[in-house]
Amino acid sequence: MSQKYATRAEDYSKWYNDLISRADLAEHSDVKGMMVIKPYGYAIWENMRDILDAKFKETGHQNAYFPLLIPKSYLSKEASHIEGFAKECAVVTHYRLMSDPNGGGVIVDPSAKLEEELIVRPTSETIIWNSYKKWIQSYRDLPILINQWANVVRWEMKTRLFLRTSEFLWQEGHTAHATKEEAIKETEQMLDVYAEFAETYMAMPVIKGHKTESERFAGADDTYCIESMMQDGKALQAGTSHFLGQNFAKAFDVKYSDAQGKLEYVWATSWGVSTRLMGALIMTHSDDEGLVLPPALAPIQVVIVPIYRTDEELQLINDAVAKITAELKDLKVKVKYDSDDQKRPGWKFAEHEAKGVPVRLAIGPRDLANGVVEIARRDTKEKYAMNIDNIGHSIVELLADIQSNLFQRAIQFRKENMHEVDTYEEFKTQLEKVGGFYLAHWDGTKETEAKIKEETKATIRCIPIGIPSETGRCMVTGAPSKGRVVFAKAY
Amino acid sequence: MSQKYATRAEDYSKWYNDLISRADLAEHSDVKGMMVIKPYGYAIWENMRDILDAKFKETGHQNAYFPLLIPKSYLSKEASHIEGFAKECAVVTHYRLMSDPNGGGVIVDPSAKLEEELIVRPTSETIIWNSYKKWIQSYRDLPILINQWANVVRWEMKTRLFLRTSEFLWQEGHTAHATKEEAIKETEQMLDVYAEFAETYMAMPVIKGHKTESERFAGADDTYCIESMMQDGKALQAGTSHFLGQNFAKAFDVKYSDAQGKLEYVWATSWGVSTRLMGALIMTHSDDEGLVLPPALAPIQVVIVPIYRTDEELQLINDAVAKITAELKDLKVKVKYDSDDQKRPGWKFAEHEAKGVPVRLAIGPRDLANGVVEIARRDTKEKYAMNIDNIGHSIVELLADIQSNLFQRAIQFRKENMHEVDTYEEFKTQLEKVGGFYLAHWDGTKETEAKIKEETKATIRCIPIGIPSETGRCMVTGAPSKGRVVFAKAY
Ligand SMILES: [Zn+2]
Ligand SMILES: [Zn+2]
């Protein structure tokens, strides 16, 4: 462990990259902008996915799978959709390779050119609504409540592991409804599912809100989001839920006949979270020693390390550990016994710390004689002796305490870094000095929003829901404002 | 239900397509060769995936994720790999679209041409071994036991839902080992995992064996497979496990230093099953009324249909059903109460039959008065009354009986359609008359294998493991044979 890693204070960005490497979560592949998610990182993502998937099913959604490749012409059917973002994408033009007649290797077979190019999905609204057109005739076919777990590609020139990669994994919900009200209710329900997941499982506090018009998803009438604060004070958009109005129904001509036989366009939503959540998780809790994981998402919640000199001592420890792990497994605690005799305890301690295992439990012969084990909490770095009697329940309580402590700590951090400002001068001066979220009045115009972004690099993260605010006057123009909005620099 | 569906006897191929549509499993998309897996079909696939995933983890594997797009040059690094199959694939040549200057829509931005084309993965050996090169230095880094759940694309001109599609979902295991013996053991272990899954959960008997050299995976030293018999007598390869020798290690220069510090090439395996299993499942059990599902994979194991005239009757039935479903859920039975009052019982019966729900339970007022429900078994179409007392346990036993009956029925069918033949004349005449598997002697040469395939369209499905056979003489050339091999026409 002689390698020097950056601390957050020294170089936040390098700290992030170092941490991902130390914790063995992911790495850049040789394919520009695309990452390899390594087993430990993928195990955390799997935990997120399984929890979210259960919540989607509880709220009545079913999974399905739609094609990876989308005909180019579909993308331009919804005008603002293609304007908005669908330009930077991977284009499939050919369907065959051939041996290079001039040497080794393969070349693209020029005779195998597609009549119409196919696009690797950057999101699936278009291909899905093309199917929904066939599936929907009557109000009896509604609602359609479908989710898809998939990979998507959006070409990125500047990438960061998990936060911005050309390929990422995500889920995308796509629902169809008979009424506007029902679609808005769905949009809001899924925002709540995301917020509850973020706070309960990721221990990451979020602010729910609406995006401004200029920050909306391309093709949406309204984009809801959850925004969380990272340890450098920047905002990270952790999930979005879009009310798509009738835009895609009109683009793909999807109508249903209501109970009276009248034809109406269908109302739509879409909503998604991605492997970006991994970046949010890392930057919410981790410290200079490495990853810190909330127990609810940790692939290993408790690691046990034996401390011994002789085979006899090891035998005694093994026997005690067998009982402890059985007890923990009964209580559904994810426990690992790290009995690797090729590595010293100190090396293991650093390793498990870097990987963010919430609880470490060290056992030596003297501990056993005293009927205790040594506990180390990853979140607070406290160490203390814990009785072996009834250790299962003690550990379950400890894990719950860690989960809650991480959330409280993050709430506290956000509180300390949330500023109310009333003048643009104050905003600019403050923002220069410290990051964080700035609650300020805005006149509701694109022009003012653009000016602020241009001059300060801060954007309106959301028009918050549930943060009470008085009316006021825009900090830039002095025009009336209905309430404070959240400004921040963002990932 | 006035639509006329093909029976197996009338038109097996149309029966298959009709069934997928009736059971609402999947459909062709407008993207050539690519399918949409609909919620009910996807739910079955999810069940398969979850069971397999647990088995992979039990045998020490971890999931990870590697890039979708592979640099073209990687594919030609392992010479026989590219020769074998990697030619028919989707080629990404550009990374941006632009608005068409001559009108609406978008065109490919000619300035956004990739220096090296990227291939949508047809399988991931090359991109994964390019990573393993960085991960493996010493014998301490081995074994690497990784699995990936992913989508892959292999361009197909003639497609059939689930059986042959240009995009499909699969898992691909990729392992790296220090010794040849360990790699072969892994290859065989994963074959056993597949065989056990097929027989225990899919209720589909399989023959394990080796592929002949000409049927091997491109880049493998040995391909093991499981072969199952469909109801038209054709064989379907349901899973493969490849011993890759040191071929990919040599192609990507992956060496490890052993305990003595000597550098050695790493040994490899890969193994996979795909959404093709859905086709196998359908064709093993289903009948002219629709899908027949083994309970172990059924998204709905028991459906309950109320039979009533008045609201009072319905109320009584609802109360009884509430108790029954609670009892069934306690026993982890997947039960659905189909109380939709817009559809008549007869319509529902046909619907659940088409979807292969293993057990249907109808309840009317007279049944309730007698303390019974009416059971209909999907597999045997038997109907009988079952006591409501202790119904949970009766249903659990019934589901187990159905699972076992389906397997026994498939075993019996295979037995009846497995022929031993000793002369090529007999082989050809018989094969013309009835399908099935033919156990015959073969001289072990590519030439004879090719001749048989050319003349009869039957291929060697495998050199079977565990089917005892005497030595003999090749039915074509009369040259010595070490044992009978399995011939059949195949999907
Ligand atoms: Zn809004
Ligand atoms: Zn073999």
Question: What does the secondary structure layout of this molecule look like, with pairings?
Answer:
The structure is a homodimer of 491-residue chains.
Chain A: H1 12-22, E1 26-28, E2 35-37, H2 39-58, E3 62-63, E4 69-71, H3 72-75, H4 79-84, E5 91-94, E6 97-99, E7 106-108, E8 113-120, H5 125-135, E9 144-153, E10 167-177, H6 180-200, E11 207-210, E12 222-229, E13 235-245, H7 247-251, E14 255-257, E15 263-265, E16 267-274, H8 276-285, E17 302-306, H9 311-330, E18 335-337, H10 345-354, E19 359-363, H11 365-370, E20 372-377, E21 383-387, H12 391-416, E22 418-420, H13 424-433, E23 437-441, H14 446-456, E24 459-464, E25 472-473, E26 480-481, E27 484-488
Helix pairs in contact in A: 2-6
Q: Could you write a compact summary of the structure shown?
A:
The first copy, chain A, is α+β, with helices and mostly antiparallel strands and 491 residues long.
